[in-house]
Amino acid sequence: MKPFPERPDAMAAPEVLDEGHLWLLELVEGAPLRFELQESGLLRFGDATREYSDADDLPLSMQAAVRHVRERFDRDALRTAVDDPTAVTFFGVATRNEGV
What we know:
Strand content: 15-25%
Helix content: 10-25%
Number of helices: 3
Distance between the termini: 31 Å
Strand order of the largest sheet: 3-2-1-4
Structural class: alpha+beta
Shape: globular
Radius of gyration: 17 Å
């Protein structure tokens, strides 16, 4: 499974802040969630740092997102769209209340 991409730090490119516009993006509150289709047809899940051999081992607060992906993911569409569906990793956010 591919690692979760890091968000770039604005200070890594300070020249961007010297000119033009700065767009701020409000992100969805939740935890990083990634998944991929295995050769067996089952989905394998992970968070920002770990991969889970059993999706039921993910934290309880992420189970609704896992259930949603399992119920709605179109495996056939992925197999049709790419040559190697096992090489594709999906990244998202498992929405949950994390407080302010």
